[in-house]
Design brief:
CATH architecture of the largest domain in chain A: Roll
CATH superfamily of the largest domain in chain A: 2,3-Dihydroxybiphenyl 1,2-Dioxygenase, domain 1
Helix content of chain A: 10-25%
CATH class of the largest domain in chain A: Alpha Beta
Largest interface: A-D, 37 and 37 residues
Radius of gyration of chain A: 19 Å
Order of helices and strands of chain A: EHEEEEHEEEEHEEEEHEEEEHEH
Largest sheet of chain A: 10 strands, mixed
Strand content of chain A: 25-35%
Number of helices of chain A: 6
Oligomer: homotetramer
Distance between the termini of chain A: 32 Å
Chain lengths: 336, 336, 336, 336
């Protein structure tokens, strides 16, 4: 059901690192991410703003870039452990006929641009400048107190095939969703929690959401309250609720450009190799939500495209086998 | 806009006290209220179960009665301060041509049955047997830790007229909702918080919901989680969300018979006579929800009828002026 | 054991209202109460600052007055329901040979200055100017989010005698502490919670502490954290811990002038007349703390004197029968 | 100041795994860890009880063993990634003249017993049997909801020397405490958080405490409340408070045999190699506590000895340079 994992990958990706999003109004987006989400600004200039969570020491986990073509994702970033992992990665991608180019990125060490087989644009680096962690500076805290970037959810035309690619890179699986031998979704991780990259079927490549951790359940309400106060009452697109897979409390907010950000409280530790992935069957009622109101329809259909990357239809056209329709039907059934 | 309040009412109603609900399956309902809501059983027999919240010393705030005609409300109860207030109340209701009968009710002192002008069945008493407050016995806590019954929301054919009746009984107003000089909803209180009785337009008399306080924001999630665990994932009918009027975090659950119970965290203190009620205009976006997903449709249309009491259509038939349609339109607008 | 309560007092005191404290450095004290405690400023001038909690509509619950004689209490304030209650109160105190003088107090309606039999200086009024409740304006929240002034704890030379005085004024008892038929402490209330005025033995009259409610358990930690951040790490004098009587989570902070302020989460509802006060025996281990580290010694001995009022020794000189030594012994025993 | 870290250690220790403690009364200790701490029992027999936290999939993180010689630690356990890491570890320890013996341990895969240079008894394994994670089974939750074993704090006669040993094994440093070029304490980690092993000076080898994570701040209070309810009011030995290094909310409880268990909320993510350890100077006020009451004296002097292992005096006899006396002086100074 799940592709085999390579526990000794060629190079060592350690964790989800950062994401670069284009925005139509830099000032407005900066306010959303500082006042509602609770990030702090590490550096900024006229055209870009570098933000990090309250518990992050590395320079940025979110880069906002002013662009007439707002609402796109430029790249999602992962960290590698050593600088030499970058060189191995370069050879690895080139060797498979995939894009790999050295790049310059402010505040980062050597940086490598690659793409996965479906065109998802990725940035790898081993180091960043560091800043003070702000988690104890409560006198400066705002928003929902987002602590650190945790994971991305991306779309794939063929979930199994893309999972196989990342499994070869050493991504392991914590939980997955199936129906009739079809893989409808997979939680994949490199760091010792249950997620760095969630892969679900759909028009691809697209970034469905980025996710920041918040410390406690009540912070999820605080995020919603501040979204309302700062003029984004309709930004709450799904939740607050409790996930089935992973079991986290969550809420999804839509930023001013339509980028989706999940705030959730933290999940369990993985690490050990003997632990089997948790399997969820889409045919059972409580698949994706144990309780909770249905998400707005756009949660299932809208996602952030990658700048300049053409879209591919899913292998199986929108039909009852896709994750979205399964979940949706379940939610509607749950609500009677 | 609001009826004048009688600050020196003929008799002293002090607070929302209890409610008697009929249920089709006593065992199942008992489990819902103990395992999900978190009430404790004070006494029970084959046909009835008396429950109280963790912080309540009085014998019961919820009485479940087995009945083939499950899903009805028998009476909502208020407390008066002195026993002699009951005698005055008897004269008061009789004097206005309203039903008033002495009754026997287990575990209660002298008990008076009355009805308001629209037929809402009410029970008044001055004393109950007492039991130990359980709020510190954490080793026995279950469910969402419901602390105490706080208020009822009922329907009225004419909101203003029923508010006028309760204002004469000394109920004061904390917050209200209007549109174009029409009163669409009113929060009325006797005890020193902002609610004992919410009155909204609709087919009447019906009990829209009873509401228990929970201690903290995270307990609202616990209630939802346990609803899911104990087989009621679809009982979450609205929320979790944040109210506009009153400002409380809330969730509405549907019990096995369709009775609606709100869990919310506590609200502010009232008491002082110089404080003006807060006015909300249904025409402004954030009227009833500052953020949050729309409630399921049934939240707006379904409510608990009073056993054996005929229904009256609202003065204004379902039209854009009713509270429900206003709120609904707002929510839909908010969600785009 | 407890004095009889007058359930139909001559005039209607409704609740703890406000307190006027002298401070040596107004700017510094203002910062402590806004940045650490979380109050908001309603008005201020060169010599005084009027503050209220986030859930308070009335103009002030704390008045700080610059004074060379900082660290004193000028008056504790209670509210009466009607203006005419003030006239009755005037006659009541005068009739008993107790001080009663009409006074002017900014932002308040008619104001009456009285003293209880041991010289505790009290201010009564029926109305204040009102301001917007700030509890939902999360974007402006600071400190521990103190919601509203809840109660005072004062010292009495003879606890029973002073309880008798306040019982005659309609104060009822929720919980009390005894040993061998001696009343060592009493929780007295007028509003529908378990406290407006706690009375304990000691050098008198002195204000042991004023107490603000905070919404949730974690806010108590936030108050402590901000005390540390803003330069008052040693202001945490007792707790965080859990009270026996009343059962609240608490922490006591010392302000820059040595005034003691308790932050605690809210307590249970009282109101009904059939509920018996809870009795605690100082001889049983868990009397005052169910768990927790001993308070610093000064918590037991230091309190705020009333400006210009001479002190009276307790009837029973410091001996094993006093509350403080009982509690202290218990705590030491508890800690081995 | 800190020993150099070997980023490519000979074998891969991944995380703190488990601990084996001897207890005088197995039933009593089992109750403490289930009812107060909140662990669940994976397996048990007449003489031993295997427990895990609510978020743990591996069979046990705490093993209680009935013994007349209760109150001792048999071994602390770490996990390695692959089975072959055990073979390398065996050679590594043998090659340095340190104890290394293969052992049988129920519910674990191949198990290796080793000792560090000061005699700390350690157990290594690569796999365990697994059980269902219980973190979402709220209907079965008890105690403080301890989620997973996080770290140990041990004593060393010479902190620097022992840190050097563990640094060679790949343990990295997140935060450390110094005074005048002396290393007074070090937080060392293998997994991606800031702690697996804290090393402080003192009579050695001894286990100062084991630490479980709890989900939220309020759970710390719940742990204390249940300690009081179940008859351990004096088990609260230090806190609740906020750590300086690591910044966690914490409380230390003493179990029935005197073993010390810390409950704390979770800390920040480490992983990246460019992040510098945080340095704390014992000479500055807020070294170890930003606020909070002093710990009971025994927190500084009492710790769990390893079964059958002789004790070594610290290199520097108890003097002002030891961690404990530094912290203690700071705390006393902080409290005036």
């Amino acid at each position: 059901m799940l592709p085999a994992v390579n526990l000794r990958p060629a190079f060592n990706i350690t964790r989800t690192s950062h994401v670069i999003l284009t925005v139509a109004d830099l000032r407005k987006s900066r306010e959303f991410y500082t006042d509602v989400v609770g990030l702090v600004v590490s550096d900024e200039d006229e055209n870009s703003c570098y933000l990090r969570g309250l518990a992050e020491a590395c320079h940025h986990s979110l880069v906002l870039v002013q662009s007439q073509d707002g609402g796109k994702c430029r790249r999602i970033g992962f960290r590698v452990f050593f600088d030499e992992d970058l060189d191995i990665a370069y050879q690895y991608f080139r060797g498979r006929g995939l894009p790999a180019e050295w790049a310059e990125a402010p505040y980062q060490g050597r940086t490598l641009h690659v793409s996965d087989p479906i065109g998802t644009r990725i940035e790898l680096c081993a180091t960043m400048e560091t800043r003070q962690r702000m988690y104890l500076h409560k006198e400066k805290h705002k928003g929902a107190y987002a602590q650190r970037l945790d994971h991305f959810q991306i779309h794939a035309p063929d979930t199994y095939a893309l999972c196989a690619f990342y499994s070869e890179l050493g991504f392991r699986n914590s939980e997955y969703l199936t129906h009739e031998d079809k893989l409808l979704g997979a939680f994949m991780y490199r760091k010792g929690t249950c997620l760095d990259l969630a892969i679900v079927p759909g028009l691809a490549p697209r970034l469905h959401h980025l996710a920041y951790t918040v410390p406690e359940a009540h912070d999820i309400f605080t995020g919603c309250d501040l979204a309302g106060i700062y003029g984004y009452p309709s930004s709450v697109e799904r939740g607050p609720g409790r996930h089935g897979p992973g079991g986290m409390l969550f809420v999804y907010l839509i930023d001013p450009d339509g980028h989706r950000v999940e705030l959730f409280n933290s999940h369990y530790q993985t690490i050990d190799i003997e632990i089997e992935p948790v399997r969820w069957d889409a045919a059972t009622l409580s698949t994706n939500v144990r309780w909770g109101l249905p998400a707005l329809a756009r949660w299932y259909s809208v996602a952030t495209e990658f700048e300049g990357v053409p879209l591919t239809e899913p292998v199986e056209k929108p039909n009852p086998e896709t994750l979205e329709s399964y979940i949706r039907k379940r939610e509607e059934a749950a609500q009677g």
